[in-house]
Write a structure and sequence with these properties.
The chain contains 3 helices and 5 strands; from the N terminus they run βββαβαβα. By secondary structure, the protein is an alpha/beta fold.
Length: 112
C-alpha cells in the first residue's frame, strides 16, 4: 500500500515527476536504499561521470519514514539526483524493489 504523505525532504512527490525542462534521450533509474549513501557517492564519481550526453541518471529511493532524514535530505539537496517514490521503506525484499521499479517507471514516463 503506498505511503500517504505527499512530500519527503520538502519534495512534492507528484511534482518531482513533472516533465523535465530538458529533453534527455534516456533516463536511468538506479534502485537504491537509504543507508547506501556511500555507494551512491561512489557511483557519482565513477561511472555516472561517463554518461553519454543526453542521458539522465536518478537514484530511486522508497522511504517512508526515512531513518536518517538529515543525511538523505542533505544528499538530495546537494546532488538533485534522487527520486523518492511513494512507498514504505520497510517492504520486504520480495516486493519492495519491484514496487520501487514500477513507481520509477511511472515517474520516468511522466518526467522524461
Amino acid at each position: 500500500m503506498p505511503f500517504p504523505s505527499p512530500t519527503m525532504c520538502g519534495v512534492d512527490l507528484k511534482q518531482q515527476c513533472s516533465p523535465a525542462a530538458s529533453s534527455p534521450v534516456g533516463a536511468i533509474g538506479i534502485l537504491s536504499h537509504e543507508p547506501r549513501g556511500r555507494m551512491r557517492d561512489t557511483l557519482r564519481v565513477t561511472w555516472l561521470r561517463e554518461l553519454e550526453p543526453g542521458l539522465e541518471a536518478r537514484f530511486v529511493i522508497r522511504g517512508a519514514p526515512l531513518t536518517d532524514a538529515g543525511a538523505t535530505c542533505g544528499e538530495h539537496e546537494t546532488h538533485s539526483d534522487i527520486v523518492f517514490v511513494n512507498a514504505p521503506s520497510d517492504l520486504r525484499r520480495e516486493n519492495g524493489p519491484l514496487l520501487s521499479f514500477v513507481l520509477w517507471l511511472r515517474c520516468a514516463m511522466l518526467a522524461f
